[in-house]
Amino acid sequence: MKQRIVKIAVFLIALIGVNVLASFVFFRWDLTEEKRYSISDATKRLLQNLDGQVVVKVYLTGDFPAGFERLERAVQETLESFSDYAGANIAYRFIEPNDPKLQEELTQKGLIPTNLFANEDGKRTERLVFPGAMLVYEGKEYPVQLLKGNQSASPEERLNQSYEGVEFELASAIRRLTLKEHKRIGILVGHTKVPPPRFSDLLATLQQNYDLYFDVQNPDSWEKGDLLIIPKPDLPFTEDEKYRLDQFVMRGGKLVIFADGARVDSVSLEGTFAQPSALNLDDLLFKYGCRINQNLIKDLSCALLPLNVGNMGDKPQIKPLPWRFFPLINNFGKHPIVRNLDAIYTRFPSSIDTVDAPGIVKTPLLLTSQYTKLLKAPALVAYNEARQQPDPREYNAGVKNVALLLEGSFSSLYNNRLLPNDPRMSSFVGKGKPAKILVVSDGDMLVNDIDYARDAPFPLGYDRLSGKTFANKDFVLYAIDYLMDSEGLITARNKQVTLRPLDKIRLKEERTQWQLLNLLAPLVLIGLLGGAWQWIRKRKYATG
After folding, report:
1. Tens-digit pLDDT profile for residues 483-502
2. Residue 135 pLDDT more than 50?
3. Cα angle at 458 between 456 and 460, to 5 degrees?
4. Which residues contact 170 (CB under 8 A, 6 or more apart)?
5. Lowest-pLDDT range, 291-295, 397-401, 473-477, 527-531?
């Protein structure tokens, strides 16, 4: 009897000790294969360093089909994990947006609703849901869209992609709201003929997270930024400007180039004329490890263009036709920038080749389909071609690279080129610090369309003909986040959760058997354990 009391006392003391220790030491043990309940180290650091409360209002709640319920549960589990590391600095609540006034308010604030279709009692029903959240911090609000992913995937796969992206979408929004010091981005508008309103959607979005400045043909200002963007250049760079770009990269600056390999100018009603771009950057990019070719890519996976196919009476007949010079990019490299990204809308892109550059890591990001054909500039691009049925056998150029990420310590183009008495020698850097360069062979990827009726810009990536907004802006923002984020928050986009769907045919045929097994097996197991325990006790005391 005394021994039993001692054992009970030791057990209670150990139990109390474990609970006291747990109040001082926090740890989690994720036993899932994909570590789906773990968050990245960068997210943990962000949450632990919050200096104020972030309130998260989630509007993805209600009576949903299984896929949406899974996404709702993922959001709840992620926010629970956030609160474990942030404590009282993360507060959240789920709100079902049934009120039409609230729905209108959420739409105006930037949350995009989704029509949810379901079959209830044999009747098809439709309702509006808001798969998003609104984050509030110090009076500022920021909308977060939680339903993302590639729209060409099945609904189950897209919901799973959204599931995988919950941590990054919420964490990046928290960082944007709580950021105290903004890094600087320079926009080299002095070399483009594109009017400012055509860049307005991108610039307005970047201004929320970064301090922007414009060079206005002043190369002295380039070194003031952490990152430089060259948007659709039309005018060539001088040797002095190219030298300044080179030294900016040598000092660890990040460079983003959206440049056309071939410039397309309108010449007549029959078509357009493509001629090689002369930007004087070829040798610089070649030294860094890539080359934008002076050609145009034709891809069987492409967008539509409204063209005149003839007259009906005295009026032209306009029809949307496949325009193979506008490839839809839905083939991506293996990198968190483009993971689970939707299709990208391009216009007259060129191919990019990689060349030898010691120590430079080259990662393809955007790739065409395998059914491509190259048109070398100069060339006439005839509108009438859209009316012709293409021969797939001619589209045999294979997959082409449209966006390339270069990372490493670059060597200067001007090594062994400057004379000893050159005044630039005193500050010249021949071997650079670790830097990153993004090269995209389509300058139009940054250019938004204009709604002339409202005199306002359309979202970047919006296609007026289809009414769809492609992922152009997401790609640019994710890329800049990766280039500028020293903490590595974007690595949260690497999270992968494997879909393990049930065999629907077997489920239909064996439904009753599995239901009985799930219902009876636990009861039988408990009965067997109880019987075995009673038998052991009887045998023990019978022998005693």
Report:
1. 988 667 887 777 766 655 55
2. yes
3. 135
4. 56, 75, 78, 79, 82, 133, 135, 144
5. 527-531
If you count them, how many residues does the chain have?
Answer: 544
- Among residues 331, 409, 408, 315, which one has the least CA distance to residue 364? 331
| pLDDT at residue number 17 | 67
Degrees (nearest 5) of the Cα angle 240, 245, 250? 120
Amino acid 452 reads Y
Long-range contacts from 386-395, C-beta under 8 angstroms, 24+ separation: 386/305, 386/307, 386/321, 386/322, 386/323, 386/324, 387/307, 387/309, 387/321, 390/300, 390/324, 392/300, 395/298, 395/299, 395/300, 395/371
Residue 395 reports pLDDT greater than 90: yes
Output the DSSP codes for 280-329: S-HHHHHHHTEEE-SEEEEESSEEEEEEEEEEETTEEEEEEEEEEEEEEE
Enter the tokens of residue 25: 């030491």
143 closest CA partner among 172, 114, 184: 172
Which residues are CB-contacts of 184 (< 8 A; sequence separation ≥ 6)?
210, 211, 212, 213, 224, 225, 226, 227
pLDDT at 268: 46
Residue 269's pLDDT band, with cuts at 50, 70 and 90, is: very low
Q: Over 80: is that where the pLDDT of 7 sits? A: no
Q: Give the per-residue pLDDT at 236.
A: 94
The pTM of the full predicted model, rounded to 2 decimals, is 0.82
Would you say 299 and 368 are in contact if contact means Cβ atoms under 8 Å apart? yes
Burial of 511 (0-12, 13-18, 19+ CB in 10 A): exposed
In this structure, are strands 372-376 and 262-268 parallel, antiparallel, or unpaired? Answer: unpaired
For 207, other C-beta atoms within 10 Å of its C-beta total 12
Cα end-to-end span (Å), the chain: 15
